[in-house]
Specification:
Helix 1 packs parallel to helix 2 (39-52), helix 3 (74-87) packs parallel to helix 4 and helix 5 crosses helix 6. The chain has 230 residues and is of the alpha/beta class. It has helices spanning 7-19, 39-52, 74-87, 104-113, 160-166, 188-204, 210-216, 225-228; strands at residues 28-30, 55-59, 94-97, 116-117, 141-146, 149-153, 222-224. The chain has eight helices and seven strands; from the N terminus they run H-E-H-E-H-E-H-E-E-E-H-H-H-E-H. Strand 2 (55-59), helix 3 (74-87) and strand 3 form a beta-alpha-beta unit. The structure holds zinc ion (ZN). Zinc ion is lined by residues 2, 31, 58, 60, 67, 98.
């Protein structure tokens, strides 16, 4: 969720979560309020979203409209946001780094906070420069982080478009985990594609949600963080 404080975006997202297309509990991975944004309203909305589905942290390192880090200390900001969420009684179960950014230090902080991660993607996001840090994974795995720490990684496998295309062909993956941005819902065509995609997916696969998955998942695959970088 990029813009939970925008009333129009929020009402579209709330309606979708309420409707549960295909029976899916839609997770809200929320960007915490930036300086000058209304914290009180953010809390209210985070609590509403949390009551309707799994809840997670989505960090934008640079600005509300600039997700990837450009300077500063990426792990420190994640730790700060995680502790702040806990202090206000909101305990995320998942993390997703803005702009699909994850480095080993951020991964350690996420593991220490007790979250699972879904920043890895099964595809290479088109806008990333060659060599830009990114974790690419097809299936869930444990990421070994050294000193006995590990992070449960549940990769994001499908965009709205990939979900729609996948419905025409067999889904090869053990787990289909589609993502979208709350702002996508303002585009009627995309919002409709998402709803239809989820309903058809539910007819072909077993419906679950991120929290249920996290509880039951015991991936066979373990890999060192360094080898997962693509
Ligand atoms: Zn974002």
């Amino acid at each position: 969720m990029e813009r939970p404080l925008d009333d129009d975006v929020w009402s579209h997202f709330s309606a979708l979560q309420e409707r549960r297309p295909g029976g899916f509990a839609i997770a809200a991975l929320m960007r915490p309020p930036a300086e000058g944004e209304n914290e009180e309203r953010w809390h209210e909305r985070a609590r509403e979203a949390r009551a309707r589905g799994p809840f997670g942290l989505h960090t934008h390192w640079t600005a509300p409209d600039h997700a990837r880090p450009s300077a500063g200390d990426p792990p420190a900001l994640v730790g700060e946001q995680g502790r702040w969420l806990e202090s206000v009684g909101l305990k995320p179960t998942f993390f997703c780094g803005g702009g699909w950014y994850l480095d080993a230090d951020v991964a350690r902080v996420v593991a220490d906070l007790g979250y699972a991660d879904c920043t890895a993607t099964a595809f290479r996001p088109g806008y990333l420069e060659p060599g830009a840090p990114h974790v690419q994974l097809d299936e869930p795995a444990w990421l070994e982080l050294g000193e006995g720490r590990r992070l449960l990684e549940v990769p994001t496998t499908h965009s709205i478009g990939m979900l729609a295309r996948g419905l025409m062909a067999p889904f090869r993956r053990q787990i289909v985990h589609a993502y979208f941005h709350d702002t996508d819902l303002l585009d009627g065509r995309r919002a409709n594609a998402l709803r239809v995609g989820l309903r058809l997916l539910a007819l072909r696969r077993t419906v679950t949600d991120l929290d249920e998955l996290q509880r039951d998942l015991r991936p066979e695959k373990t890999m060192s963080f360094a080898n997962s970088r693509a």
